[in-house]
Amino acid sequence: xxxxxxxxxxxxxxxxxxxxxxxxxxxxxxxxxxxxxxxxxxxxxxxxxxxxxxxxxxxxxxxxxxxxxxxxxxxxxxxxxxxxxxxxxxxxxxxxxxxxxxxxxxxxxxxxxxxxxxxxxxxxxxxxxxxxxxxxxxxxxxxxxxxxxxxxxxxxxxxxxxxxxxxxxxxxxxxxxxxxxxxxxxxxxxxxxxxxxxxxxxxxxxxxxxxxxxxxxxxxxxxxxxxxxxxxxxxxxxxxxxxxxxxxxxxxxxxxxxxxxxxxxxxxxxxxxxxxxxxxxxxxxxxxxxxxxxxxxxxxxxxxxxxxxxxxxxxxxxxxxxxxxxxxxxxxxxxxxxxxxxxxxxxxxxxxxxxxxxxxxxxxxxxxxxxxxxxxxxxxxxxxxxxxxxxxxxxxxxxxxxxxxxxxxxxxxxxxxxxxxxxxxxxxxxxxxxxxxxxxxxxxxxxxxxxxxxxxxxxxxxxxxxxxxxxxxxxxxxxxxxxxxxxxxxxxxxxxxxxxxxxxxxxxxxxxxxxxxxxxxxxxxxx
Length: 527
Ligand code: F6P
Fold this sequence. Notes:
Elements: H1 8-19, H2 25-28, H3 34-38, E1 39-42, E2 45-48, H4 56-68, H5 71-79, E3 106-107, E4 110-111, H6 113-131, E5 145-149, H7 156-164, E6 173-177, H8 182-189, E7 197-202, H9 209-223, H10 231-234, E8 235-239, H11 242-248, E9 255-257, H12 274-280, H13 282-301, H14 308-322, E10 327-333, H15 340-352, E11 370-372, H16 384-389, E12 396-403, H17 409-428, E13 449-456, H18 459-479, H19 491-506, H20 515-525
Parallel strand pairs: 5-6, 5-7, 7-8, 8-9, 10-11, 10-12, 12-13
Antiparallel strand pairs: 1-2, 2-13, 3-4
Helix pairs in contact: 1-4, 4-14, 7-12, 12-13, 13-18, 14-18, 15-18
Bound molecules: 6-O-phosphono-beta-D-fructofuranose.
The site of 6-O-phosphono-beta-D-fructofuranose has 14 residues, from loops.
């Protein structure tokens, strides 16, 4: 039976973990070669792993674990279109969305690459026509506002990328509506004009309740002042479900397709990225894809011990399974990357937040960590107290761009100094002696971090960074023997919401509910 705990490398790591009891980062970081030995540069981005609780032996054992769990085999399967999403019998091909025209990836006997490029051409044409003012609203005015209505993977990726690439945005302003909470869409629509607003209804299934409800609200809002025929100019859809799109009233020509083999949380590279292309222009969208492709190639072709996503992945396993650390933090020292933790949280936690392995058995080891984070330096004035001194260490990624998009040099120097100081403090800590005998100011140190320094936040560099995280999650999923590409855990709540909604609408309490739910519903119904 394939279980990670049965691999020789897992057992060797258990022993090695005991041997590492006295490992001191403070001491390791006095060694001249430490940085050279544990840092990697990919194109313009530096990944420094020297502040981790590792020796060369740790890396060797962890890469053995990746090998023994079949990371290379699964990687090959994913890139060649094999159906590695076993519970849904689907290929996993977000990577195909950023592959060149010359690539061949077959799914059920069809090479999917021409389809991907056909959709890219459609995105290019539409993007150019909206951005140049050729595509107008029903009164002939140019589009000034674009509202992407979607949730989860149909929202978080584009929202994160558009925000991160704010300095590349031009033309119409892109807004995002996701929540079924009416506050979200009503506040977004309030300042907008139906004459100049374009809606993108982004939903893989085109059945998601939140998105469908908000799409209905948007249509009503438009039709309050505009004729029925205006829907064609003001609504486009991104989906795999052509029939449902048509039923909603969006014509075929206004639909951008993707296929079931792109998982929602991995879909920003597909037609789901339409809002990104509209915000930053098609050439910049292509650069984003190209950056991701460069990381795909690195992931595919680099030996495991020098492979950035593999190292990110195995280090996470090291801390999760051997140190028992429950979480992982992502701390961008760059406001533009403010949504990285939220996006990665879905991508990582919806992928590997599971307890049933690929063979249908309950695991007896820890799986995906809790992901959280906020931009520095704000985070330093909120939860970093806990990160430095709580008894529960949390590994973290610190991300910085060398070149900011503003001219405030002093601010950037200060930001960089804080970035360096935080990882240094977490690594080396502070002894009782250094704290002048004040025990409340002891910092244990030995708290591991990866420092990622990008030259500049370009679409290309961002694409590459996001792909690194995607592959990290992939590596971990393979080691934990999980299917990282389904999400059965979100289904139950959706199913249970239906009868409860009926109950609330009818204002009649159903007898078969549990006592707490009944009383809560009753309290809600009370005047
Ligand atoms: O949250 C569950 C989920 O299925 C995500 O995986 C997905 O990204 C999201 O809902 C939205 O789904 P859809 O794109 O089909 O509306």
